Amino acid sequence: MLILRRSDVTDVLSGREAETIDLVADAYRLHDEGLTSLPHSTFLRFPEERHGRDRIIGLPAYRGGERPVAGMKWIASFPGNVASGRERASASIVLNSLDDGHPVALVEGAVISARRTAASAALAARELTAGNAPDTVLLIGCGVINLEILRFLTAALPGLRQAALYDTEPERAARFAERCAREVPGVKAYPVRNAAEALGEHRLVSLATTAAVPHMDLSACGPDTTVLHISLRDLTADAILRALNVVDDADHVCRERTSLDLAQRRTGDRSFVAASIGALLRGTAAIDREPRRPVVFSPFGLGVLDIALAEYVRTEAARRGLGVRVEGFLPA
């Protein structure tokens, strides 16, 4: 059994934003072709009131194609961690051999989860703004995910120059701007105090918050706005129904009281979903933008992306001699 620590994963993926985006795109294409297996995620919740917002999610997945891989991500989301200075999410990924089913690697999954999420968002931003790429972005929610999204956006949109930052806690936005200056120096990042005004000034918006229920609409958006709805529960059902919606997988995203699930309950169907990102990448679907109608990308976060990226990390780490090998984990 190969154990890959956070430092091993970070070493492999540092500076590999373009490769990660390509890997995510390939996984989406395979999924659209029917060459993946993705059971619904399992949500473990807790009966105690103090754990009302906490959950641990299991995401089993299989990616077929030329380099098949199978495994499972087990990711915990404890929003209360943020107030105490700890990361909200922690995760581990198990990869299994397709020869005998034995587990072959245990991989620290929080870095992989954050970077595949960011790669997915950056890929969608590139595809959905093709021909008219923005040079600014508004990041709503100043945490780990939007930092990674900003990093990956610079790879997908080389002309990006500025990032407006909004958080319900202004001090967090100020600290986040300092971190952006250190880690993404090519983009000028600055806090803003009025989210509605900022929505009207930026054609690209990334929502990555800890919101559990919808709290905003998109009425303040200007023409030709693309919204990366990463946290899935920020937008009201009305906002979803008025938008042109792109998803990663409608079956996965229209559940667990996401904004799209609420829209589905309102209408009784999913006709508000225009296309999947995999179909757009393969050219089997297209969308016609309307200037006054925002395009919203809502990815559930398919486990196949985690498994694909974890396998890439495992292969590269083994080549470099990274990680810790544990002998005798399984019987001989």
Ordered list of secondary-structure elements with their pairings:
Elements: E1 2-4, H1 6-13, H2 17-32, E2 36-37, E3 42-44, E4 55-63, E5 69-77, E6 89-96, E7 103-108, H3 110-128, E8 136-140, H4 144-156, E9 162-166, H5 170-183, E10 188-191, H6 195-201, E11 204-207, E12 226-229, H7 237-242, E13 244-247, H8 250-253, H9 259-267, E14 273-276, H10 277-282, E15 295-298, H11 303-320, E16 324-325
Helix pairs in contact: 2-3, 2-11, 3-4, 3-11
Explained architecture:
This protein starts with a strand and ends in a 7-residue tail after the last strand. It is α/β, with parallel strands linked by helices and 332 residues long. α5 (170-183) links the parallel β9 and β10. Strands 1, 2, 3, 4, 5, 6, 7 and 16 form an eight-stranded mixed β-sheet that branches. An eight-stranded parallel β-sheet has the order 10-9-8-11-12-15-13-14, sandwiched between helices. The radius of gyration is 19 Å and the shape is globular. It contains eleven helices and 16 strands. It has helices at residues 6-13, 17-32, 110-128, 144-156, 170-183, 195-201, 237-242, 250-253, 259-267, 277-282, 303-320, and strands spanning 2-4, 36-37, 42-44, 55-63, 69-77, 89-96, 103-108, 136-140, 162-166, 188-191, 204-207, 226-229, 244-247, 273-276, 295-298, 324-325. α2 crosses α11 and α3 (110-128) crosses α11 (303-320). It has two domains: 2-112 and 303-325, ornithine cyclodeaminase, domain 1 (2-Layer Sandwich); 120-298, Rossmann fold.
